[in-house]
Amino acid sequence: MKREIYQQILSMMHMYGSRDCLKTIALQFPGVTYNTLVSIYSQDYQKKTRKNHHKHHKPDVMETYYKRYLSGVSQDSGEPVLLRIAEEVDLSHSLLARIVLERHLSHTCYEGQNPPRGVVSQMMKDPLSLIEDKTLATEVHQCILNDPNYGPLVDNIKRSVGYEYELILRERLENRGIQFLGEDDLRSRGYDKTPDCKLEIPIAVDGCVINWIESKASFGDEYNHQTYLKDQFWSYWNRFGPGMVIYWFGFIDELDCNRERGIILKDDFPTDIITLESFLETS
């Protein structure tokens, strides 16, 4: 996807301001899959959340949200209080639920001190069982179920999708008879940062030698790609040489600019692979 098209899609998302716009945008860009639009929207939402994080996590603001929650449930209207507040303050449902849960624990269990993050995270994963206040437990549970962008449910879905595409990558390699080592194999050999697949024998794609392949079940935008380059891809290159990254939901074309340095980008498993065996047969 050209950067210009990506910017047009983002502009439309910002104009509509809601995830409900994706089907409309899909009609305007028939060459872009719905999964790609979902990934782009999710990434942009996360950027917005990171940008505004400090605004919602000031102690006085967090306490205000908690008091608004207490006031809302005291009216016993039967309406989901946290969902309404989240919409009013333009914050992820799950993130607001976490803030209110933290303040609740601080007031009821930790004598005004912040509760351990691990305790809060565990309760967010299973609120109905672990949160003693059943009203709050139900409110938090509703937030998690209704949040399409953040929270334990979304994290589980992302992990499942990521694992699914890793299996697809492994299946494609096995179907081509390409031998490889997985992450577990590499870690057992003492490697700390490992790609999804390290090829036993290099292959060639688009005239480039490939020693490893990384699977990303997402869209490759500027921010995430640069982060991956810094934290993962160049580390793989240092250890194993040149490799390939598959962004299954597409990427900004202009980001595929490191081929000469040893990292190429694809949006699917390539069909024009040259293996050593096939090269020797044609030589």
UniProtKB/TrEMBL annotation:
Name the InterPro entries on file.
Answer: CDIN1 (IPR029404)
* Highest taxon above the source species: Eukaryota
GO CC annotation terms, alphabetical:
cytoplasm; nucleus
Do the record's keywords include Cytoplasm? yes
Q: What is its main location?
A: cytoplasm
What are the UniProt keywords, alphabetically? Cytoplasm, Nucleus
Which Pfam families does the entry mention?
TPD
Where, subcellularly, is it found?
A: Cytoplasm; Nucleus
Its recorded name reads CDAN1-interacting nuclease 1
What gene name does this entry carry? 2
